[in-house]
Write a structure and sequence with these properties.
This protein is an alpha/beta fold. It has helices at about 15-30, 50-55, 80-85, 95-100, 105-120, 130-135, 140-150, 155-160, 180-200, 200-205, 215-225, 240-250; strands spanning about 5-10, 40-45, 60-65, 90-95, 125-130, 165, 210, 230-235. The protein has an eight-stranded parallel β-barrel with strand order 1-2-3-4-5-6-7-8, surrounded by six helices. The longest helix has 19 residues, at about 180-200.
Length: about 250
């Protein structure tokens, strides 16, 4: 059975004290729910990992938003997957469109990062998604296939059980524009079909596929009710505990 997951992606927001307060607020709000239907992951800046781990313990899951494409060594300013894992984080978000777009992360770089993350014992939330131009040109299926096949399909089935996929149409990120339920379900079903062709039915069926892009309390329930949408990767709405809780409880 696949897991439902709601993951927050704080991006480059909150100072350490603000992040600690937000983590406390989310933790407390989640603790007050007696019938939680999903795992909750907080994707926080590197600088916050240890402090947030101390607050959330094992009640929530913890993610970094990136890791280096090398294991260790003379790479000034980088943070490796083993370093992330050593903070108590159990996830890393890889391939976010902001990383691909602003920091030139390629399919090949991401394949290396995925390998290093898995070797360090981390689970990976792997993001994919098309731009508005690509959707208008009708190439969105090809883009998503290339991103997934190129960075993930060398993995063994056992390794793949540590992968969560997040479909994030770039045109919906931070724009207030959400994919319609039909658009999102269509891509999620396509991704699951792709996984079936490579890894078979059972593994495809067990893989969590998240939707991301202007997901908020008012649209989460409709999205999460769809057969192939197993939760969300939440940017803006994860920065307010009340909004994030509204999404967590949308199942
Ligand atoms: P958003 O961001 O919810 O602010 O649109 C989602 C993401 O980039 O992960």
């Amino acid at each position: 059975m696949r897991k439902n997951i709601v993951a927050g992606n704080w991006k480059m927001n909150t100072t350490l004290p603000e992040g600690q307060q937000l983590a406390k607020d989310v933790c407390q709000a989640v603790a007050e729910q007696d019938n939680l239907k999903c795992d909750v992951v907080l994707g926080v800046p590197f600088t916050h990992l240890c402090a947030v781990k101390a607050i959330i313990g094992d009640k929530l899951h913890l993610a970094a938003q990136n890791c280096a494409d090398h294991d260790h060594g003379a790479y000034t300013g980088e943070v490796s997957a083993p370093m992330v894992a050593s903070t108590g984080a159990d996830y890393v978000i890889l391939g976010h469109s902001e990383r691909r777009g602003y920091y030139n992360e390629t399919i090949e770089t991401l394949r290396t990062k995925v390998d290093l993350a898995l070797a360090a014992g981390l689970n990976v939330i792997f993001c994919c998604g098309e731009s508005l131009e690509q959707r208008r040109a009708g190439t969105h299926f090809d883009i998503i296939r290339d991103e997934i096949v190129g960075s993930l399909f060398h993995l063994t089935p056992e390794q793949f059980t540590h992968i969560v996929i997040a479909y994030e149409p770039i045109w919906a990120i931070g724009t207030g524009e959400t994919a319609t339920a039909e658009q999102a379900q269509e891509i999620h079903a396509f991704i699951r079909q792709l996984l079936t062709s490579q890894y078979g039915n059972t593994l495809a069926d067990d893989t969590t596929i998240l939707y991301g892009g202007s997901c908020k309390p008012s649209n989460a329930a409709e999205l999460f009710a769809l057969p192939d949408i197993d939760g969300g990767l939440i940017g803006g709405a994860s920065l307010k505990a009340a909004d994030f809780l509204g999404i967590i409880t949308a199942f």
